[in-house]
């Protein structure tokens, strides 16, 4: 693991490391024609059919509001009988879904950010929160599954312990501070400043957003889809936010935000910040509700 790009200790940063889908761009294709007028109920039924018949590792799907149908992305590992299975499931949905191949591979990496170090893994903090009046922080669930204790420096003292982690299914973890560490409600902007975080909110398609991560620091983009399903090798993750913000290994678990509003925790993505790509995020409101925590 190359640590040369990791900056020194920063208090309570919103950066992170772990799952990154190393695929060619998954950016949903545009269309000139008007969207097909499928109802929400029809598309929900179509998603259920995909869950039942196409949920094999190496696939992802979401409704593209620009074309009014589900776009099913299939990576290069899906071959033979599994590819036939996915193609049949999509074909059975008629004009409610379309299939798209990507040359890359959807696979997880436990790499990392600079904020927290676990047992053999390096991840980073997403947002500082409180629960029952005590300080906690949110990070990616795959990080919480990988380690029970966390430090803010390599081989440093323990500053927090994982209290709850969900992955797959969802991708969030709640870590309780057990040692002395600053925990302001803010995100590192990597220019000497921080963005204060006052609340959590639901992302909207078309919303302009920012992502902070230790590998590629701060990048901007837009929300492209909601309720995205991604099938990692470890299992399916549902309800993610899709964006065209770039990310690279080591950015996962970090903060997606719009001004002072916390939106998501980086779960995975495709491409890189040279050629572009897409990144998926665990919504923060759902993580707060599940863990009983609150912002700030």
Secondary structure layout plus pairing:
Elements lengths: L39 H14 L5 E6 L4 E6 L5 H13 L4 E5 L14 E2 L4 E2 L3 E5 L2 E6 L1 H6 L2 E3 L6 E9 L5 E6 L8 E3 L5 E3 L2 E2 L7 E6 L3 E16 L2 E9 L11 E4 L2 E12 L3 E8 H8 L5
Parallel strand pairs: 2-3, 13-18
Antiparallel strand pairs: 1-2, 1-15, 4-5, 6-7, 7-10, 8-9, 9-10, 11-12, 14-15, 14-17, 15-16, 16-19, 17-18, 18-19
Describe the model.
By secondary structure, the chain is mainly beta. It is built from 4 helices and 19 strands. It starts with 39 loop residues before the first helix and ends in a 5-residue tail after the last helix. The radius of gyration is 18 Å and the shape is globular. Mean pLDDT is 82; it is low at 1-34 and 108-114.
Task: Summarize this entry quickly.
By secondary structure, the chain is mostly beta strands. Helix content is 14%, strand content 38%. The protein starts with 39 loop residues before the first helix and ends in a 5-residue tail after the last helix.
Structural key phrases:
six-stranded antiparallel beta barrel, five-stranded antiparallel sheet, 19 strands, disordered N terminus
Assembly state: single chain
Q: What structural class do the secondary elements suggest?
A: mainly beta
Amino-to-carboxy terminus distance? 33 Å
**What is the β-strand count?**
19
User: What portion of residues is helical?
Assistant: 10-25%
The SSE order reads HEEHEEEEEHEEEEEEEEEEEEH
Overall residue-averaged pLDDT value: 82
Radius of gyration: 18 Å
| Biggest beta-sheet profile | 6 strands, antiparallel, barrel
Q: Count of DSSP helices?
A: 4
Low-confidence stretches: 1-34, 108-114
Pfam families: Pro_Al_protease, Trypsin
Family: Belongs to the peptidase S1 family.
Domain Peptidase S1A alpha-lytic prodomain: 38-92
Protein name: S1 family peptidase
């Amino acid at each position: 693991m190359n640590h040369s790009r990791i900056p020194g200790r920063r208090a309570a940063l919103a950066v992170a490391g772990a799952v990154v889908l190393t695929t060619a761009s998954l950016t949903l294709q545009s269309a000139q024609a008007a969207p097909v007028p499928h109802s929400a109920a029809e598309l929900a039924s179509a998603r259920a059919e995909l869950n039942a018949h196409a949920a094999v590792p190496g696939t992802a799907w979401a409704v593209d509001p620009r074309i009014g149908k589900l776009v099913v992305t299939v990576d290069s590992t899906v071959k033979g009988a599994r590819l036939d299975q996915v193609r049949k499931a999509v074909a059975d949905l008629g004009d409610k879904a379309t299939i798209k191949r990507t040359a890359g591979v959807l696979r997880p990496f436990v790499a990392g950010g600079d904020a927290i170090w676990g047992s053999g893994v390096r991840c980073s903090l997403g947002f500082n929160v409180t629960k029952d009046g005590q300080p906690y922080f949110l990070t990616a669930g795959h990080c919480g599954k990988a380690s029970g204790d966390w430090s803010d420096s390599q081989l440093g003292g323990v500053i927090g312990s994982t209290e709850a982690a969900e992955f797959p299914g969802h991708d969030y973890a709640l870590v309780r501070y057990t040692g002395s560490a600053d925990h302001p409600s803010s995100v590192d902007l990597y220019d000497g400043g921080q963005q204060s975080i006052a609340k959590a909110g639901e992302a909207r398609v078309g919303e302009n957003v920012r992502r902070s991560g230790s590998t590629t620091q701060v990048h901007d983009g837009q929300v492209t889809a909601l309720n995205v399903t991604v099938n990692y090798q470890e299992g399916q993750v549902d309800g993610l936010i899709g964006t065209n913000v770039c990310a690279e290994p080591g950015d996962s678990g970090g903060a997606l935000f719009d001004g002072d509003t916390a939106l998501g925790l980086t779960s995975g993505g495709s491409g890189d910040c040279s050629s572009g790509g897409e990144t998926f995020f665990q919504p923060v409101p759902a993580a707060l509700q599940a863990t009983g925590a609150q912002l700030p």
